[in-house]
Amino acid sequence: MNIRSKMIAEVKRQQVEFSPLEHIAMSYILETGASSQQMLVESMNKDKAQIARIVARLLAQDLIIKQENPADKRAVLLELSAKGKTLLQRLDDVEMEILTDMLQGFTQSESQSLQLLLDRVSKNLG
Hints:
One of its GO terms (molecular function) is DNA binding. This protein is mainly alpha-helical. It contains 6 helices and 2 strands; from the N terminus they run ααααββαα.
């Protein structure tokens, strides 16, 4: 809960409307360099309508931009805007601060053990 509230506080400080799904979508776009809406549908396992709403909200806030797809002139690619990159970097910084606070007092070995255990829990959950 504490992590979520810190992330929400940072989003408010940045003066944007932003959900966890939008964060995931922007992270994927950053990771791939440019993405189509269909790529987001497949990677996030969400329906087209839900992805269309996410993209519309991100476009309305100038967090992403549409670019013509050079391989297919009928399609567009989504890229992060400068504002989107700044927001994502700030959220990553906050996340790193939270992780640092969470692991304070842990040895390197304990941190690694915790990571292994959490990875196993994540795999067990599917």
